[in-house]
Amino acid sequence: MKDISKYQGIIPAFYACYDEKGEISPEGVEALTRYMIEKGVKGVYVGGSSGECIYHSVSERKLVLEHVMKAAEGKLTVIAHVACNNTADSCELAAHAESLGVDAIAAIPPIYFHLPEYAIAQYWNDISAAAPNTDFVIYNIPQLAGVALTMPLFKEMLKNPRVAAVKNSSMPVQDIQMFKMEGGEDFVVFNGPDEQLVSGLAIGADGGIGGTYGVMPELYIKIMELTKAGRLDEAMKVQYAADAIIYAMCACHGNMYGVIKKIMQIRNGLELGGVRKPLANLIPEDMPQVEKCVEMIDAAVKEFCQ
């Protein structure tokens, strides 16, 4: 059996880090990586939705990953999302990620054109072949990609021995159960929707990858600890608190990741910049709601994690 312990835990999706000009900030990337280590998370998922990957060039995505790996110093499991909307760029990022020694690469299906499943499988297998010594994670997020990971497609991908996991961000927790049953004991399934981590873990997810984990990692670490201990009533209370914070962050005019970065500046002193257009940046009218979110996180951490 494979050793899947490096994937069993809380893995925050890594945020895009910008300087005052809106360019990638290597200093910000390294500071955020060190923060993740200090918070005790299992790893980081770099270059995904939370990392605003579709608005970054290939060279920018390489730069981010290089500085994550530099600062991580082997203390984090690093999964690099390498999908672009063409195979060549995706393969270039996959080979680059392997050269840096990441634990796994990941990819969503191609977006915009609705491809037949055999073409999606070929796309993923081509990417995997560009990093032949690295685990491959299928990223299933149908609500954004417009394509769902069906069981026939999943079974086809399992023929590739490098396919080690699914990051499942579809809403039905039943999907986690189905992928886990079909994949087998040493196949990893990550819960994707942050709002249902308790449910995902309870039905068999090995860990979680989430876009709001980084702003309140203490809460998600506590959720996993309680759920794994069978203390579901307590875990549910923490989940409800985290969900209320998510809903509050989404109530701002600015994009949620802009809200998150502002909260992390206030709570943790991290300078991560805003978000890249066309995502909406914060406006002054957002600040009372941002401050409310800060208070909610502080209160929840004090109640459940101290």
Describe the overall structure:
The protein is α/β, with parallel strands linked by helices. The chain has a domain at 5-217: Alpha-Beta Barrel (TIM Barrel), CATH 3.20.20.70. The protein is built from 12 helices and 8 strands. It has helices spanning 26-39, 58-72, 87-100, 117-129, 142-145, 151-157, 173-183, 197-202, 217-228, 232-249, 256-268, 287-305, and strands at residues 10-12, 43-46, 77-81, 104-107, 135-140, 163-168, 188-191, 207-210. Strands 1-8-7-6-5-4-3-2 form an 8-stranded parallel β-sheet. The termini are far apart. 47% of the residues are buried.
**CATH homology superfamily of the domain at 5-217:** Aldolase class I
Distance between the termini: 37 Å
Describe the strand arrangement of the main beta sheet, using strand numbers.
Answer: 1-8-7-6-5-4-3-2
Global Rg? 18 Å
Biggest sheet architecture: 8 strands, parallel
The tally of beta strands, per DSSP, is 8
Percent of residues in beta strands: 5-15%
Taken in chain order, the helices and strands follow as EHEHEHEHEHHEHEHEHHHH
Mean pLDDT: 96
> CATH top level of the domain at 5-217?
Alpha Beta
